[in-house]
Amino acid sequence: MEKSPIRVLVTGAAGQIAYSLLYPLSKGDVFGHDQPIELVLLDIEAMLTVLDGVVMEMQDCALPLLKSIIPTADTDVACKDIDVAILVGAMPRREGMERKDLLRANVKIFKAQGESLDKHAKKSVKVVVVGNPANTNAFICKKYAPSIPPENFTALTRLDQNRAQAQIATRMGLVPQDVKNVIIWGNHSNTQFPDVRHAKVAGKGVYEAVQDDAWLKGDFIKTVQTRGAAVIKARKLSSAMSAAKAIGDHMRDWWFGTKGDEYVSMAVPSDGSYGIEKGIIYSFPVQAKPDHTYSIVQGLQIDEFSKEKMTTTLTELQEEKCSAEEFCGY
Ligand SMILES: NC(=O)c1ccc[n+]([C@@H]2O[C@H](COP(=O)([O-])OP(=O)(O)OC[C@H]3O[C@@H](n4cnc5c(N)ncnc54)[C@H](O)[C@@H]3O)[C@@H](O)[C@H]2O)c1
């Protein structure tokens, strides 16, 4: 018997990340090849003609799992009865743009979407925020949706994890899947801390395998932290294909669970683990179960080097939280 469809909202649906995301999402790569989907596509009024073109292309893909497509510019219509919300829509960061300007522009979008999710979405809705500043947007969205469990609000740091895995793999002449348990701590920004202290490559600790502590504590971290800016500089557009791939990885692992004792990085509301202020959306190592629950991996040893870096990115998130609350008119 066919499963009943799940209703999946993608915002910013006329944008470049959505263009790379909608096909794999609708053909079963994220929620399974036996899971029918109803797609809800939200963008702003001015982009509705472009969105029509996206809808036409989705229809022309003739995908068996895609049961319906609802394009809209109305947030309340978009949030109605949804099971999953992939919140991509935001003003993208352009070359040279300050993070605070971006925060001011985007935080209000996520306040409105939080209120709408609160009123119209299923209480079990799983939310991943992609639009930057992703962690703080997710914090605001959660704040304005008090009837939905806080742990259902997450932000994307999987792209940073994938970037870190790829850097190590390239260095070792391996593929990224040979590198396990890389952690991204903190904010999806250049203060994030890509940590390989607990990671394994081909069964060995990464420090032991790479044999270059200076690189692991220096250029490796810097490269991952600034990769988004490097892509913008080269492409004149922010990462889209790799962001779409990471969104799929994040949602698939949350939906189906992580493998064995492996963990992945997701920005989730802190429960106070590792001394991180409760409620802040901070990227942690997490393990997920097939019932769509997840937990923060406990008991990892944190050395002084890591502690300092984890605090720097926390401080940035605390500052962003204060600014966001101010912009929302608390
Ligand atoms: N977290 C990550 O890892 C990560 C990675 C890459 C990009 N991003 C961020 O993702 C966001 C989208 O990037 P993109 O390249 O697709 O940008 P884009 O400009 O191509 O598309 C954004 C779309 O969002 C729409 N939009 C704007 N306001 C909206 C609203 N209120 N409701 C619905 N839609 C709205 C725009 O009209 C546009 O179609 C940006 O904020 C970017 O910085 C995050």
From TrEMBL:
Keywords: NAD, Oxidoreductase, Tricarboxylic acid cycle. The active site is at H188. PROSITE patterns: MDH (PS00068). Residues 157-327 form the Lactate/malate dehydrogenase C-terminal domain. It holds the Pfam family Ldh_1_C. It catalyses: (S)-malate + NAD(+) = oxaloacetate + NADH + H(+). It is an enzyme of class 1 (oxidoreductase). Its EC number is 1.1.1.37. Residues 7-153 form the Lactate/malate dehydrogenase N-terminal domain. HAMAP family: Malate_dehydrog_2. This is Malate dehydrogenase.
